[in-house]
Design goal:
This protein is α+β, with helices and mostly antiparallel strands. The chain has 1 helix and 12 strands; from the N terminus they run αββββββββββββ.
Length: 237
């Protein structure tokens, strides 16, 4: 009888030990999933699009970015308002005055629109570059995305090449294909001879083009993270 009691007590201890291990494992898994969720929310942030100045070169002179002429104090970073859900549309549906209707964020239904200024607030003539990076893509949504950049009223629309023909989509300039770069720079442009007090107005418009052959059901639920960077280049006299 004593042996039977000892055996049963040992079994109870083992069951309690297994129960604790299972509970701790479930708690650890829940904690891990919570941390992962927070990290993903920070990374993707509902498709937020940011504009930044290069942190090193802009310390040398007065290249500045800002949202409004009423407050021209330069900032390091500007943020467009995210769109929680973006359905595909046609470029024909974009407002004709989308470039001039407002400063800062002025999104519409199913597109991101953001206007801002770049000014040479220094005393030297300089060149500057602007780059657009695609940081991450889910479900190949970049196949149908359009990025239209207005500069002083003139615009260029950029898109990924057609996946079948390997040619630029109609009415667009193809994304860069820089396989050597660790960062995916899809747009790279230079502005030359930017004199003191010169001012450029930019509007960035982002949408999913419904007439793109690559705009298919498979990209539904996809996400895209992008940012734009300005870097100044000093001219040697």
């Amino acid at each position: 009888m004593a042996r039977e009691v000892v055996v049963k007590a040992d079994q109870v201890k083992k069951r309690k030990r297994r129960s604790r291990i299972i509970k701790l494992s479930l708690l650890f898994l829940l904690l891990l999933l919570t941390v992962l969720y927070i990290i993903l929310r920070v990374i993707y942030n509902e498709g937020r699009f940011t504009i930044t100045l290069d942190s090193n070169d802009t310390l040398k002179s007065g290249l500045a970015i800002f949202e409004s002429l009423n407050n021209s104090q330069g900032k390091r970073k500007l943020e467009a308002t995210p769109v929680k859900f973006m359905d595909n549309i046609s470029y024909k549906w974009l407002p004709e005055n989308i470039d001039t209707e407002a400063d800062g964020p002025h999104n519409g239904k199913n597109y991101i629109a953001y206007s801002f200024y770049v000014e040479n607030q220094g005393e030297e003539v300089l060149n500057y570059w602007y780059e657009v990076y695609i940081d991450d893509v889910i479900k190949n949504v970049d196949e149908a995305v359009r990025i239209r950049i207005y500069r002083n009223g003139e615009y260029v629309t950029y898109a990924k090449k057609n996946s079948l023909a390997n040619e630029p989509e109609e009415g667009t300039v193809a994304f860069r294909e820089d396989v050597k770069s660790k960062e995916r720079i899809v747009i790279l442009e230079q502005v030359k001879d930017f004199k003191p007090d010169d001012l450029d107005r930019f509007t960035i418009v982002i949408w999913l083009e419904g007439d793109d052959p690559d705009c298919v059901d498979a990209i539904i639920g996809g996400e895209l993270k992008m940012h734009m960077k300005f870097t100044e280049e000093h001219i040697e006299n």
